[in-house]
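Margin note: ligand = glutamine.
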Amino acid sequence: MLDSVSEILRLQSAGEASAVEIASAALDRIETADGTINAFTHLNRELTLAAAADVDRRRSAGETLGPLAGVPVAVKDVLCTHDMPTTCSSKMLHNFHPPYDSGVVEKLRAADAVIVGKTNMDEFAMGASTENSAFGVTKNPWDTTRIPGGSSGGAAACVAASMVPISLGTDTGGSIRQPAAMCGVTGLKPTYGRVSRYGLIAFASSLDQVGPIGWSVQDIAPLMETIAGHDKRDSTSLNLDVGSYVDAIKGTDLTGIKIGMLRESMEAEGVDPTIKEAVKEAAKVFEKAGAELIDINLPHSEYWVPTYYVIAPSEASSNLSRYDGAHYGHRAADIETGAELGPLVTTYCRSRDEGFGAEVKRRIMLGTYALSEGYADDYYNKALKVRRLIKSDFDAAFSQVDLLLGPVTPTAAFPLGSKVDDPIQMYLCDLFTTGANLAGIPALSLPAGKDADGLPIAIQLQAPALEESRLLFAGSVFQLVTDHHTDRPNTERPDTTKGVQS
Ligand code: GLN
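Resulting structure:
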């Protein structure tokens, strides 16, 4: 019952289930399964049931309801909510109760969605495995000895474990697409500026975007339609009309669409051959639906990861300077007496030392170095120039084709703990996803089968800026003729690996 938005809407309009019954089913499912999965950092039964009861009351009163009326939604804990804590899975913000809602959360409420809680993530969205969380790791519902991907690991896992049908994640270098791929669900990173970043706690402001996760394109299209659009409180928000994504996915024919096969990613080393095979299989599906396939090169794609890992930490080091224990965030005190620490600079240093985890500190140091006088020309300013070349590659490609097809990740979900001590290996998970963020274009991750261990693998479609409709249309055609998105994990297995990291 909790797998599909359209089914949830139908059940209510047919009078077969109330919003309260649907919300209760979601809460019960979360309470049963989340002891193992740990997808949620915060759940509020009372608020959830009250929001659902309000939908039922207004339906009975004959009021017109929003497009997501009574649909349970989970929200990544990097998006401000006035009635729930917002922690970024960091000790630094463990006590933060924002006084306002983020732009996307406002829109969810206006669409009458029922927000059930906040989901776990890598601290401040820095990571690819959800292991960098102050609230413990999230487990992959397909195999609880494996990571769910990251940083929106909780948002992808709660959908994959059928706790809620849809969720909101954020994507700075792959954090929607990569966990969606590893959890066997569908995820969209929108065009930079298409969705409001107001009330999204900043990681790297020139790259961050909010986007939807769900089982299928059918499920994420109405969520994307709800959250897209201008917000004057975000100066980078695009003041352009948003068409209907729900209408855009009607149809089955890809005739006239040219799809570029990304040659470098198909030839890259260290990529699981089953993933390359899945991309080739997907290409055949698109061809059969009428699309024309063309080989495409993106000559600077080998620089995506190095460029991203200069720009993102640089912006992060600046954004995170506000957390000093005085203006914002965890404030260190004398352990024995609880008294102030003396000089303000001691409070700054100790608060940041206690509040931030190891990966966040690493990013702050990397970024501070890349921006520092004497090094900025060699690192940050050079990375900006390479970013322009990367963007030009995409512009050239999109003068020849309408969409680009390739992998999302080099491998399926890896075992918990296997890469946490090796940052370079972790950063290489972002090999195929960072390009879209650097170029500001939309990209979609679609389930495309299983590897030899039965773990989900995925394909990625990328489109020119603001062509979300084209992307979702092609994705929905793919899902009409394939059934990878209808597979469900067996989440009833007992967990033998539970253990919370501090
Ligand atoms: N894995 C990437 C990183 O660690 C991407 C994170 C993201 O998109 N938020 O920075």
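Confidence is low (pLDDT under 50) at residues 493-502.
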